[in-house]
Structures are given as structure tokens and as C-alpha cells.
């Protein structure tokens, strides 16, 4: 059984019911639903959602516009459910704060698989959702990675840049943590997607590229001339080994 709180935001009752039934069969018990932007914000805040399945087209607005407002409430994992599958739509979703996406029509078992993959990554890395500090992290000193001007605290789930706390959505945090654990090693987009998102996927180069870009905007002095997250042309990305302590 999973104790994580899930909110499904979609105005089509048949889709909500189908996803809810599959998630319940897969062991998720705390599932709530909302059919509009206004209802979604209230439901997500009231139940302190860990995972939000967010439709883009809602009756009173856009899920894209709703995404930053959800981020203001906390740091849930946001998975867009969308019939819009163009590169521009997907990139816009990531730019607004989404962590992952799935296109309609979809198999609800894939949503369950993506959520479970996300939870496995949290367990493997020792990080957590904001309100759930794992016992191991509570019982031991936090692991801190320091590279140049940024510092990543695993137990606190915190990114410091130039000594100041910088908001970092969960999926970006996981991606940066992966790089911190393997400094100087080049990873292809496919390797990063499989390692951080937990699934093989076709057409997910955009997912990695957008998250890399957003991380650079947080940690680099000049995102267009990165010195930490470096592109290795034709191969992928690596984190510079210039490390100031662990």
C-alpha cells in the first residue's frame, strides 16, 4: 500500500474514474479528484498532495496557467495529462513547472508505472516529498554536495546557490542529485531519462533538455555559458568535477 496523496485534475468523469480505479488496484489509497482550476487548488492544498495528475484543458482555465499556482502551494510531482502532443506544447508544460507528461489517449497502467518509478527514485536516492523526511535522513547527518557556487542538501531537500535558498522542483532536484553523485561522467539524454525518471521512453529528449536548461538557470552565473552543467557535443551532459566538499 502507498500512503502518498494523489489528486487527479480532469473535467472528464470517465477518465477520472478509470485512472482512480487503476491506481487503487495498484495500491494507492489516498486519491482525490477535481474538475476545475478553482477546485484543484482547494483540493491540492487541503489534502497536501504529493502527486498531481493535471489535465491541460480545464473548463475554467488552462492547466499550464494552474501549474505555477500549484507550485506556490508546495512541491508535488506534477504529471501533465494532455491531448496536445506537439513539441511546443510539451516544452511549454515543462517551462511552467511540470515534471513529466503523458499524452491522451493513454493506458492508466502507464500512469501507475510512472508514479511507481518516481517513488522508486525517491527511495533509492534517500530524498523525499517535502512533508515526508525519510527515517534514515532523520537519524543521520544530512549528505551535502558542494560544487562551485551551489550546494545540494539531500536530507533537507534544499538547493543553495551563492548561499541563498533557490526553489527547485522535485524532478529537477533528482536530476541535479544524479549529476552530483557522478561528477565528471557524461550521460546521454536516454541514460538520464532512464536513471532519473525511471522509464525508457521514445521522444523524451525534450524532457531532459528542458530540465537541464531550468537547472542551468538556477545554478549558473550565465546559463548560456555554463560552467557546472556542461554539454559534451554529440554525447550528452556532465557536471564539472570542480567540487568544494561533500
Automatic annotation (TrEMBL):
Residues 142-241 form the OmpR/PhoB-type domain. The modification 4-aspartylphosphate is found at residue 55. GO terms for molecular function: DNA binding. Residues 5-119 form the Response regulatory domain. Keywords: DNA-binding, Phosphoprotein, Transcription, Transcription regulation, Two-component regulatory system. Pfam families: Response_reg (PF00072), Trans_reg_C (PF00486). Residues 142-241 bind DNA. SMART domains: REC, Trans_reg_C. It comes from the Bacteria. PANTHER family: REGULATOR OF RPOS (PTHR48111), TRANSCRIPTIONAL REGULATORY PROTEIN YVRH (PTHR48111:SF52). This is DNA-binding response OmpR family regulator.
